[in-house]
Amino acid sequence: AFDVLIVGGGPAGAAAAIYAARKGIRTGIAAERFGGQVLDTLAIENFISVTETDGPKLAMALEQHVKAYDVDVMNGQRVVELVPGELTEVKLANGASLRGRTVILTTGARWREMNVPGEAEYRNKGVAYCPHCDGPLFKGKRVAVIGGGNSGVEAAIDLAGVVAHVTLIEFDTKLRADAVLQDKLRSLPNVDVILNALSTEVHGDGSKVNGLSYRDRATDELKRLDLEGIFVQIGLLPNTDWLKGTVALSPRGEIEIDARGQTSVPGVFAAGDCTTVPYKQIIIATGAGATAALGAFDHLIRSSAT
Ligand code: FAD
């Protein structure tokens, strides 16, 4: 069995592996796709001390750093079940199973997509999901934010300070964000809000976004906005479906953790975008991965079996 068995190979999993291996304990990492969301990212300009990098480069650096230690890296492995016990069992889709005295869950999250024509084609070419990450790339440009919940309205307020103009598009007849955010949004001179609208297509010139079509649900009229960027803010889905019924999840499906990364199951820790941690970012996930590994190590030195 492993002393520390990590599920997920994004920034959180990589950091947890390095911190665990540096304690000289048996460390394994099973990941469906080593690198995680970082692999889908172009420019990264907010990983502190690295002025600029891109996703594939950072993913490679994470892997090289992990492989500099004695870590059993099992890439291409999807985990389907967690069975808590004296040794926690982790079952793989291929039928095999792994065991750990402690387990760290770092399965990340995925952005909910609009699922309209052009969205996938122009991803990272104008279609974006993270205002903290990509907002500055649209300085002085026109953007739309899709979604009028708290994250959409926060994104619109944030972007209004950076870009030339923001159009917020909400499917419902009213915004769902907190009143204080709605008031702030309405006070901004460069923001328009369109309610009762369904986004139908992302347009582009072949290399980048130049427009967005939506259907006015009241009149059924199809309209088009000319713009350079679209921020989709209709939800971040944690990859935790397989954990339902074993570890405590928040109403949004995020794994509930304490300050040391401990979940509701003793010996099972979690870190990164799959957890209740506020703000989902690479630097935050790496920090959380380190915390969870140190939490797991603390748990090991306090448990009787050596
Ligand atoms: P993830 O990176 O999501 O990694 C999850 C890991 O778990 C993967 O290895 C995955 O394959 C694995 N996994 C999932 N389910 C299973 C399973 N059942 N079995 C086995 N393995 C599983 N953040 C920034 O700080 N700066 C940026 O510029 C930035 N830009 C972004 C751009 C895009 C397009 C996207 C999508 C995200 C961006 N982010 C950015 C956010 C950042 O990528 C995430 O916050 C970060 O990757 C979270 O790390 P994580 O390790 O928690 O999860």
TrEMBL record:
Entry function: Serves to protect the cell against DNA damage by alkyl hydroperoxides. It can use either NADH or NADPH as electron donor for direct reduction of redox dyes or of alkyl hydroperoxides when combined with the AhpC protein.
Residues engaged in binding FAD: 3-18, 263-273
Name recorded for this polypeptide: Alkyl hydroperoxide reductase subunit F
This protein's encoding gene: ahpF
Assembly behavior: Homodimer.
Cystine pairs: 130-133
Gene Ontology terms for molecular function: flavin adenine dinucleotide binding; NAD binding; NADH-dependent peroxiredoxin activity; oxidoreductase activity, acting on a sulfur group of donors, NAD(P) as acceptor
Keywords, sorted A to Z: Disulfide bond, FAD, Flavoprotein, NAD, NADP, Oxidoreductase, Redox-active center
Binding site for NAD(+): 142-156
Family per record: Belongs to the class-II pyridine nucleotide-disulfide oxidoreductase family.
Listed cofactors: FAD
Ranges of residues in domain FAD/NAD(P)-binding: 2-288
GO biological process, one term: response to reactive oxygen species
GO cellular component: cytosol; protein-containing complex
Cofactor binding comment, as recorded: Binds 1 FAD per subunit.
